[in-house]
Write a structure and sequence with these properties.
With 219 residues, this protein is mainly alpha-helical. The chain contains nine helices and no strands. It starts with 11 loop residues before the first helix and ends with a helix.
């Protein structure tokens, strides 16, 4: 059977309208995950065994269970405990952000530990507070070292955002599925959406390389 993309041309604006939700979910999840990842990374290098255990346990839970399961637990299961429903958008951001935080925390921890320990010792000798030392000296250097790994995580999150279709969120994937259902022809809209995701990923890749080159130039 030949593919006929002309039949989905009238539906392209409808499908692309889901791009806004996809981008919003990704951006908000990245911000939430990054804040959480920094906190978890600092806990993992803490001298407190309890903080290390809590951070490691958290990471093991989110890295040891499927993302789609986490999303469904938050959207379908959590309301059973808290007594009220969670909207699709905050549920998606919460699920992806919590999951991303677990993965990115390992990347940041490795980046922090890769920074020369002599700098921390020198900062401590000069009486620089720990918080200021981390925010002004250690973390900026760590982020330069781990930028490629961070971009890979963000690219992965962008692709995984398509999972919001399982909770009925009207993103790119959901709209492509609905268009396919109306025409009884799923391949064309799904291939179109695959192309949209491919362009997004390529733009993120180019952005990451540009930022990396800029950082190297400033060194």
């Amino acid at each position: 059977m030949n593919l006929d993309f002309s039949q989905i041309v009238p539906s392209i604006p409808y499908i692309l309208a889901g791009l806004k939700l996809t981008i919003l979910v990704v951006v908000c999840s990245i911000l939430l995950g990054l804040v959480l990842a920094i906190l978890l990374a600092l806990m993992k290098i803490s001298r407190s065994k309890w903080l290390v255990l809590i951070a490691d346990f958290y990471t093991s839970i989110f890295r040891g269970t499927p993302m789609v399961l986490q999303l469904m637990i938050i959207y379908f299961g959590l309301p059973q405990i808290i007594g009220f429903e969670i909207e699709q958008f905050p549920a998606a951001v919460l699920a992806f952000g919590l999951n991303s935080g677990a993965y990115v925390s390992e990347v940041i921890r490795a980046g922090i530990q890769a920074v020369d320990k002599g700098q921390q010792e020198a900062a401590s000798a000069l009486g620089i507070p720990y918080r200021k030392m981390m925010s002004k000296i250690i973390l900026p250097q760590a982020f330069k070292n781990i930028l490629p790994a961070l971009m890979n995580e963000f690219i992965t999150l962008t692709k995984e955002s398509a999972m919001v279709t399982v909770i009925g969120a009207s993103d790119l994937m959901r709209r492509a599925y609905l268009v396919g259902g109306e025409s009884y022809s799923y391949m064309e809209p799904l291939i179109f959406v695959a192309g949209v995701y491919y362009v997004l990923i390529m733009l993120l890749t180019l952005l990451g390389k540009a930022v990396e080159r800029r950082l190297r130039t400033n060194d």
